[in-house]
Amino acid sequence: MATGCLVTSGLLTAAMFFYWFMTPTRTLFSAAAIADAPATGTDLSIRALAFGISMVPLGTLIYGFLCARRCFDAFAVGHVFASAG
């Protein structure tokens, strides 16, 4: 389970990165229900800003997975409900 939490955290980050940097501009705008997509595409800085903003809520989920990973690691060595000290 600990490994699964770590792998899931990495995959979520990679998926968000690929979504913002590999998705065509027209698809991004249509997913946001914006009809007027720019013809030239979006700048890399805009995509990086959007990635950073969308990582805030996803980061809380990833933080939860990493906390769960620590919990499962503690369970594996027999420290059930012990303080991390």
User: How do the helices and strands follow one another from N- to C-terminus?
Assistant: HHH
Radius of gyration: 18 Å
Low-confidence stretches: none
Largest sheet: none
**Helix content range:** over 70%
Number of extended strands:
0
Structural class: mainly alpha
Q: What is the averaged pLDDT score?
A: 89
Question: What proportion of the residues form beta strands (DSSP E)?
Answer: under 5%
Distance linking N and C termini:
22 Å
DSSP helical segment count: 3
Shape: rod-shaped
Topology:
Elements: H1 2-22, H2 25-31, H3 44-76
Summarize the structure.
With 85 residues, the protein is mainly α.
What does this structure look like?
The chain has helices at 2-22, 25-31, 44-76. By secondary structure, it is an all-alpha fold. The longest helix has 33 residues, at 44-76.
Q: What are its keywords?
A:
85 residues; mainly alpha; 3 helices; rod-shaped
